[in-house]
Amino acid sequence: MLEPVVATFMTRSPVTVTLDAPFKQVACALLVSDASAVPVLTEDGRPIGVITESDLLANLEYHGGIDPPPLLGGATARRRRRKAAAHTARELMSSPVDTIGVNAPISAAVCRLTRPGAPPLCVLDDEQRLAGLLTKRDLIAIYRRPDADIAANVRAAVTTDRSRPARTPADLTVQVENGVVSLAGQLTYRSQVQHAIMAASRVAGAVSVHSSLRYDIDDLLVTGF
């Protein structure tokens, strides 16, 4: 099954800043950017950090670093107070930067971006230079994939089972409407039915999977799995 890669959904040519960019320049960069963060680049174009909206808002929260952090705020509050007093991108940014390859499967990015508090991913080309930025908002664009593309990926996925002889595509009916996948037909083994449902659910852009697949042999009853 061909899975879309990060390059398909990333924001290309994102707004960036240098290490010595002053606070106001960083704020303006965020305002003109379509993303919720701006990468900080070295002179040779390599990302060294990232600055989010939250990093900038620490300045408002602690009034430029004048206010003390809460007594029970812990390390997070102390770190935000330090950022509140920042004057340059170097002091504002979070580092090391989270990166991913331009040709990495989109599923790898999903696993990382959906973690609580995960920052945007800087997308690197083969020379480890910035090629784009991938945000949670970019991932939502997965659901813009045409139903026909999703259906083609599902057909490729559900007719391939390395552990059992594959049935032909004629044994299956795949329909996709508004991202909802419907599977129908007859397979040899119950395990193939489960494989088909699982594989279809992992296709990028699939909202849900409805299955009316049938099977000839309950191999799971025999194996116990």
From TrEMBL:
<dbReference type="InterPro" id="IPR051257">
    <property type="entry name" value="Diverse_CBS-Domain"/>
</dbReference>
<feature type="domain" description="CBS">
    <location>
        <begin position="10"/>
        <end position="68"/>
    </location>
</feature>
<dbReference type="InterPro" id="IPR000644">
    <property type="entry name" value="CBS_dom"/>
</dbReference>
<feature type="domain" description="BON">
    <location>
        <begin position="146"/>
        <end position="217"/>
    </location>
</feature>
<feature type="domain" description="CBS">
    <location>
        <begin position="93"/>
        <end position="150"/>
    </location>
</feature>
<dbReference type="Pfam" id="PF04972">
    <property type="entry name" value="BON"/>
</dbReference>
<protein>
    <submittedName>
        <fullName>CBS domain protein</fullName>
    </submittedName>
</protein>
<keyword id="KW-0129">CBS domain</keyword>
<dbReference type="InterPro" id="IPR046342">
    <property type="entry name" value="CBS_dom_sf"/>
</dbReference>
<dbReference type="InterPro" id="IPR007055">
    <property type="entry name" value="BON_dom"/>
</dbReference>
<dbReference type="Pfam" id="PF00571">
    <property type="entry name" value="CBS"/>
</dbReference>
